[in-house]
Request: fold
Amino acid sequence: MEDYIPIAALNHYSYCPHRCWRMFCIDGFTDNQYTVEGTSLHERVHTLSEGQREDTWQIRAIWLKSERYRLIGKADLIEETNSCWYPVEYKRGHRGEFDNDALQVCAQALCIEEMTGSPVNLGYIYYAHSHQRQPVEISAELRQNTIATIAAITEILHTGKMPLAIYSQRCNGCSLHQQCLPKAADRVKRYREVT
Reply:
């Protein structure tokens, strides 16, 4: 939807602002083995369904939306137990090293709160390789970081201004590494500073 931020953009921005800009401003996405595995996982998960599993009501592949934060996206799984709602985000790998997955879960929690009128204090990330759920506390700090990330993405989407590509450990697994060449950009920047 126009003027709405895809919830997944928070994950991409937190991982790398330049990656987010390439994906959502210039439609420059490219697949690699990790993104193909992730897409395959989500295709299996994103079959709309709902049902009871013991004391938990589960809804898969439901669209979430927040008017307040201008967010939209499809949730992998939403669960409700004892009148408490929580999102479960599926990821292909092992437990994440960075906070980008937690931001995505928090953005889903913000949408669920607005849609249900109930507070959401907990979410989960399910890692397919380890078959484990990692709890994500929807703390005041995580909420603030999520709202700040939403504001930063809004700025990029409205201005189209490209964030610099900055090389880090994360670049090694990025599907857009060949497009942005962060090491080359870093060398050019250092060269310009010297001359």
Remarks:
- Residues 5-162 form a domain with the Lambda Exonuclease; Chain A fold (CATH 3.90.320.10).
